[in-house]
Design brief:
With 366 residues, the protein is of the alpha+beta class. It is 25% helix and 26% strand.
């Protein structure tokens, strides 16, 4: 048996390329693997840098996140009042002049009452003819008609109201119970109101990553922060043509791989999952086989892959891990200790009985 020992070491050395498991290969802080990266509007090959997880990195990333959260479209205070537009049905009531309110004398169904604003934004009314009302508030139209009718009647008193709101709409799609188009009324339509009028969100809704599409731009809205922390800056006023998309949270997962207690996919709940929480959910590092200084976070990004590394040899590194936020589709990979790799090679190339004998021999000092 002892004559076979030199042969064992020859086999081990020749099996380096067959080491079981995965290993991060890097050169001077750069991954050895070339990956597709978007640069200057075109795809190129590049080796991602391996960035250490430090306090400076966490501060930089958090400041960037806060800046992005504040990157919202400016509020237009002039748009809070409803402005009449094409296809709206408007009713004008002139007191003490029934001939104006019901020129034909016949009864009119309530849904057919009033007059529809045409595609040019004009409203026809007896005596004054076509009046351009698009873009005006109810109060402004009331003042305009009062002034024009005063040329024909004394002490004109009238009322204007919108019977059917058709000109201004926003779409609410994604994880709401009744997705579709929501009409804007005299009550300003906010993000929270639009979601409520769509039946509320489903159980799979990701409220922390709601997307607002407006004028060819996309804005991220943290509706969860609005509901849980009262962050009213996220409760934007919607305007005509907006599209509000509530995404699905089922794909918001982080993969735990390598030398962790349990390899699995973890769900990001309510948009929050730190590196330390993820490691704890995976039953921590396997201290019998792991290399704590090689805790990697591999982030595919949007064609901009990134790799981060945490040196967890010291327990206080968990302070950094607790403040490092993971994102959907991240992969956390913990490296394998060299001794463990060597042991796994033996288990692959040698019979189990022989490996057991070798282990006992090593234990007694042979």
């Amino acid at each position: 048996m002892f004559r076979l020992i030199p042969l064992v070491f020859v086999l081990v050395l020749s099996a380096c390329s067959l080491t079981p498991g995965m290993e991060m290969k890097a050169e001077n802080g750069v991954s050895a693997l070339e990956v597709p990266v978007m640069k200057g509007g075109r795809m190129v090959k590049e080796k991602p840098k391996i960035v250490p997880i430090t306090a400076d990195l966490i501060i930089e990333r958090e400041n960037a996140r806060l800046q992005e959260a504040n990157n919202l479209p400016p509020a237009d205070v002039n748009k809070t009042a409803y402005r009449i537009g094409p296809q709206d049905r408007v009713q004008v009531t002139v007191w003490e002049h029934p001939e104006l309110n019901n020129p034909g004398g016949e009864e009119i169904e309530p849904e057919m009452a009033g007059k529809v604003v045409d595609d040019n934004g004009d409203l026809y009314y007896p005596y004054v003819g076509n009046v351009h009302v698009a873009g005006k508030t109810v109060s402004e139209v009331r003042t305009l008609l009062t002034r024009k009718l005063s040329n024909y009647f004394k002490q004109v008193k009238l009322d204007v109201r919108v019977l059917s709101f058709q000109s201004h709409r926003a779409a609410v799609v994604g994880e709401v119970k009744t997705p579709g188009v929501v009409s804007m009324t005299e009550t300003p339509l906010t993000v929270a109101e639009a979601i409520s009028r769509s039946g509320g969100v489903t159980e799979h809704a990701d409220m922390s990553n709601v997307a607002l599409a407006r004028d060819g731009k996309l804005y991220k809205i943290d509706v969860l922060g609005l509901y849980e922390k009262g962050n009213t800056t996220q409760n934007l006023l919607l305007k005509d043509g907006d599209v509000l998309n509530i995404p699905d949270s089922k794909e918001n997962k982080v993969l735990m791989m390598g030398e962790v207690g349990r390899q699995q996919a973890l769900q990001i709940n309510k948009g929050r999952l730190s590196l330390s929480q993820a490691l704890a959910e995976a039953y921590g590092l396997d201290f019998n086989s792991s290399r704590p200084e090689e805790v990697f976070v591999i982030r595919p990004g949007d064609k901009k892959p990134e790799i981060f590394q945490l040196n967890a040899e010291s327990p206080d590194a968990m302070l950094l891990a607790d403040q490092f936020a993971l994102q959907a589709h991240d992969t956390v990979f913990v490296g394998t200790a060299g001794v463990t790799q060597w042991s796994r090679v033996l288990n692959q190339i040698l019979p189990s009985s022989f490996t057991s004998i070798m282990s006992r021999a090593a234990f007694v000092g042979m």
